[in-house]
């Protein structure tokens, strides 16, 4: 059974402080992410929603997990948009994934705490730091939760692989189309899109260009062309997909790697 919808969640949070409400909603989003792919019973869901967490507000364009760090907690994105990146010795870096609300951006750090993939806030971001011992404890007490965590890490690995293919083997328009199709599916799966075709993307063109391996100038031309072709519209804070079928075809997008299947809608 899927977790309660947004209205039920909001009603449950009416008696909480603003801080408690934000923590509860973020854990609810993560539970939606897990149960989209993994069956969990009510006791397991309740245990996940009861995880201890410390809220932390991160300013825009700030690294909050650094290459070479050894971390003792995993970061759950409560609000905002985060890039996972790799960095070489001269300081050059490349984005390899975007994390939206409800993502546990570095769940893998529970078993691999030495940071190789670092995290950067693309927008003002609220995150929850969840201690590794709490995550290990819930995984040991509930094998189904451990499998859900495992599957969640597999999906993150799938995304990394798809991004590599996207940037190294597709033309510019297909790269942008693929990114937009992926984000539309992921936002829709946690109930944070409008009709599945409009979702928040409040980042700069320079950051978006990094995500698809283009210059900002080239990206701007691609977005303009996709808009003129009636495929998508990028506004300052959001993206609207105007023709999903054609955008999916352009991107050669197959959402099986996300284990959601939302590209099969008519």
Task: Tell me the layout of helices and strands.
Layout: H1 6-12, H2 18-35, H3 42-49, E1 54-58, E2 62-65, E3 73-79, E4 82-87, E5 93-99, E6 118-121, E7 125-131, H4 132-141, H5 143-169, H6 172-189, E8 198-200, H7 205-212, H8 216-228, E9 232-234, E10 238-241, H9 244-251
Antiparallel strand pairs: 1-7, 2-6, 3-7, 4-5, 4-6, 8-10, 9-10
Helix pairs in contact: 4-5, 6-8, 6-9, 7-8
Please provide a brief summary of the model.
The chain has 266 residues and is an alpha+beta fold. The protein has nine helices and ten strands. Strands 2-6-4-5 form a four-stranded antiparallel beta sheet.
Structure characterization notes:
The protein has 266 residues and is an alpha+beta fold. The chain folds into two domains: 147 residues, Sandwich (Jelly Rolls), CATH 2.60.120.10; 95 residues, Arc Repressor Mutant, subunit A, CATH 1.10.10. The chain has nine helices and ten strands. The N terminus and C terminus are likely disordered.
């Amino acid at each position: 059974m899927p977790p309660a919808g947004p209205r039920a969640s909001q009603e449950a949070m009416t008696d909480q402080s603003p801080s408690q409400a934000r923590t509860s909603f973020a854990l609810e989003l993560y539970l939606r992410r897990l149960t989209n792919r993994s069956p969990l019973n009510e006791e397991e869901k309740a245990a996940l929603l009861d995880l201890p967490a410390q809220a932390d507000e991160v300013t825009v364009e700030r690294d909050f997990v650094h290459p070479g760090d050894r971390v003792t907690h995993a970061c759950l994105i409560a609000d905002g948009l985060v890039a996972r990146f790799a960095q070489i010795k001269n300081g050059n870096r490349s984005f390899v994934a975007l994390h939206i609300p409800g993502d546990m951006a570095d769940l893998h750090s529970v078993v691999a705490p030495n940071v190789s993939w670092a995290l950067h806030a693309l927008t003002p971001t609220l995150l929850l730091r969840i201690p590794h011992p709490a995550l290990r404890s819930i995984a040991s007490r509930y094998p189904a939760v451990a499998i859900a965590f495992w599957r969640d890490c597999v999906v993150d690995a799938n995304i990394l692989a798809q991004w590599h293919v996207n940037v190294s083997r597709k033309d510019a328009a297909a790269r942008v189309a693929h990114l937009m199709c992926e984000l539309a599916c992921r936002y829709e799966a946690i109930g944070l899109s409008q009709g599945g075709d409009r979702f928040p993307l409040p980042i700069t063109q320079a950051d978006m260009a990094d995500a698809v391996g283009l210059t900002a100038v080239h990206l701007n031309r691609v977005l303009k062309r996709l808009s003129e072709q009636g495929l998508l519209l990028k506004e300052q804070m959001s993206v609207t997909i105007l023709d999903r079928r054609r955008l999916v075809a352009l991107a050669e997008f197959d959402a099986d790697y996300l284990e959601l299947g939302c590209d099969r809608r008519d």
